[in-house]
Amino acid sequence: MSQGEKQPEFSHFDAEGNAQMVDISGKNESTREALATGTVRMSAQAYSLVKSGTMAKGDVLGVARVAGILGAKKVDELIPLTHPLMISKVNIDFTLHDQDCSVEILATVGICGKTGVEMEALTAVSVAALTIYDMCKAVDKAMVINNICLLKKTGGKSGTFVRPE
After folding, report:
1. Active-site residue 134, yes or no?
2. What is the mean pLDDT of the chain?
3. What is the CATH number of the domain that holds 62?
């Protein structure tokens, strides 16, 4: 931090350093959206079964989509100090990458509210990735879940954030 730059305050702590839920009652509602991503890399055999929809446990990506949506809706039960939110949209999309036998997950979460949905988008990706792992682990226990990150968020007091490339 350079001289003269103000140290950021952590809003989840009170003046005595105790954890607290941030008071958002005075904030204005605004349209907010968050976009997160992550990847599951797997063996060629597991990838082929996912791609063809023939994994023994069923439609891996269909189930992972529903799991990701459910994960986004349950963030306040999983992450301490987050607010229960009335999410207006959750989209989970998958891109299959043949060259490295990976499934890229993209979650978009939207709301018109007083707080953002970054945690909801990140959780949606995480739960979708874990579901893919669970449904494919009989074929490949060495799968790797990686690169879960926020790509973009819009709305709110802090405005737009776009992850640098």
Report:
1. yes
2. 91
3. 3.30.70.640
Beta 89-97 vs 102-113: how paired, if at all?
A: antiparallel
Whole-prediction pTM: 0.89
Give the range of the structural domain holding residue 99, as residue numbers without chain letter: 30-158
Per-residue pLDDT tens for 46-70?
999 999 999 999 999 999 999 999 9
Query: Would residue 22 count as lying in a domain?
Result: no
Residue 24 lies in a domain: no
Count of structural domains within the chain: 1
Check residue 1 and give its pLDDT: 44
In a domain, 126, yes or no: yes
Residue 69 burial by CB count (10 A; 0-12/13-18/19+): exposed, middle or buried?
buried
Instruction: Tell me if 114 is assigned to some domain.
Output: yes
Q: Which residue has the tokens 């891996």?
A: 60
Q: Does the pLDDT of residue 6 top 80, yes or no?
A: no
More confident residue, 150 or 116: 150
List 59, 76, 93, 134, catalytic entry: 134
